[in-house]
Amino acid sequence: MKQLKYAIQNVIRGKGSNIVKVVSITLGLLVSVILIAKVAYELSYDNFYRDNEQLYVVKTGWDGGKPLHGNNIYPTAAAIARHFSAQVESFTIVTEAYGKMSHGNKAYRETVLMVDSAFFQTMGLPLYKGNALDLANPDMIFLSESFAKEVFGSDGAVGKTLLYNIGGDYQPFIVKGIYADIPLNTTLYRPKAVISIANRTKYYKGGLGWNTGGNYQAFVRLKHSKADAEIINKGITSIIMSQYMPMDHYGKFGVKGIEVMVSPLRRLHLDNWNTVKMLYIMGILAIALLFTATLNYVLISLSSLAYRAKAIGVHKCNGAGTGGIFGMFLWETAIIVCISLALIAFIILNFNEKIEELIQTPVGELFSLQNIWAPALVVLFLFFIGGIMPGRFFSSIPVTQVFRQYTENKKRWKYPLLFVQFAGTAFLVGMTCVVFSQYHYTMSKDLGYNMERLASVYDSYEHVDNTLSLLHNLPYVEGAATAEAGMLGFPSPYPVNDNSGNMIFSPRLTFFDREFFNFIGMRLKTGKAPTAEGEILVNEEFVRAMKWDNNGVGEYVPEHGTVTGILDGFRFIDAAQMEPVEIRWSSGRGNVMHVRLKEPFDDNLKRLNEEMKKLYPQDNVQFTSYAKQMERSFHSERVFRDSIILATIAILAITLMGLVGYINDEIRRRSKEIAIRKINGAEVKGILLMLSTDVIRIAVPAILIGVVLSHYTGMVWKSQFRDVMTTDWLFYTGVFIVVLAFIVGCVIIKSWRIANENPILSLKNE
User: Is this structure's pTM higher than 0.90?
Assistant: First the structure.
């Protein structure tokens, strides 16, 4: 207990340096704990399903392409179960459904899945009420626990009726069961409701055979997991190709074959290489920040050696042993870490909304019992390193050496600590510049049409022309028109074939209504916009793919139309090299309603959505700005950008505190030397240069290493983009100069007073 008592006294006595320690640790721990917790959270994906190690996702690769994806032909899972019955316990088929529902005067737009009756058994998802076999029947609906309470309250939902929009009209569906909510950390859908897949044939008149395309997700629960998966993967592709695959049908679309395999669901999230890269980089950032904060604490602690050495000597003279001194420093570190943790808890509790907005994960999920081990390891690392290094150093100094000014001119131990801080700072500043510039480049580049004040919504309107007329009459609406798809990406449903019926390529294609060409403001390199059925616009990539000798205007593409114009500069948001694009004129209306609003855009968008709520209370129509849609397209990149900016601000503050502690120690240690130099004629700039020289010698190689590491790490991060901004040596030279200027500037500002002080005062203090 004496050690704790002395530790408390030391914390109170050294409140100035300890406040710096607390602030430094709080900043470092706050950001590194959040980043590490985010990494642990991402690694916990899909672990909540019962016996998740036995749950596998079916993947298909067309033409043997890699990587395989989770979109399969409907009977694929059934074929696996049929031919590998000794390995497969159960299987299920899933596809997304239209998610508009209503009950009373309330409308809901939620994620809904069409599933079969084996869905709950195969996925290992708890079914609280109802019989899963009811999913074999259409017009039955199962609700998640939270959604059932939202719609029906505490009265109970089973047996009640919910209106569900299917086949273009609202139909009554009977609630037959309640299932457990699916947590956020899943790579799959989080449906608020599931209905029978039999509804696809009833309402959409579609088939479920081998020629229906790859629109279904499939899952199998294996009996012995890995061994069973290896057996299935060795034989399933050849079985499907030889016994089931209708190549006469798929050959028309240029398909030469498929490859099928099963893969563990728990690995699905990490099969995305972009996700893995993001986690690696976030981990590196967290470690860099943690090391910087920890070593900064050590640096500040050891900087107090000059004025704490005699106190330690007194303790040793009064019987304190090496272990006692060491324990006292551990208690001191524990107190400071606990204060920092209390501040971190206060910040998280009071700014949880901002933190959740930053990392796009609820704080409760981030620090759940399942993931708390990761933040705990971060805290323990800082505690042990921050406590052990100063504790061992102080406790090992002999009493006689302490009273002989053992610390005088012994500063070499500070250099590695400063080196790590400077390298970490340069690394994070460099990464911030790379990430920010690439993100800004992606979000601000010209896409070949007018995106100003543009918003859209996907919906099926009964009377589209009436809706358009209503929109045109609103005083804050500048224009409105429809298209079959949004402008950020088009599907490729119709291939271009040669005279023999063989596919040449499959262009990205959409339909515009008659007003949309002028509305969207697309530029043409040559020709004119279509004005009639059978007329199309194409881009230069389309012309090259067709191998036309002229510019393409006037050419006829069988089953597509006559080219009237060539697009100029049109591109998708993340396309370095555009694919062939085709835009058709349509006399009808598309499903994506676009509006261009007047300024102020945000206020008018809010007014528009309030107006649509009144006009279409059952449909829950909500327009979204194109800027928001683009942000959603790069959601993970934006989260990473915001995280690294926060980490950089933290490491700059920590480095500043470390520099202040180092310079204070240098000034205290060399005050007599500085005074004598000034008496002998040294000028202010000479004193500042003397104090800056040692720091510059450490900073230059450290910053160089940090900038080089930021370059290579930034290249890894940028590899997920198809259109990459070029960063040359001038870019990184600028980063080097900025970081060096920050460090030298801090030294000069902190040293300015002693450089201008009357030397007599320093000698008098001595």
Answer: no
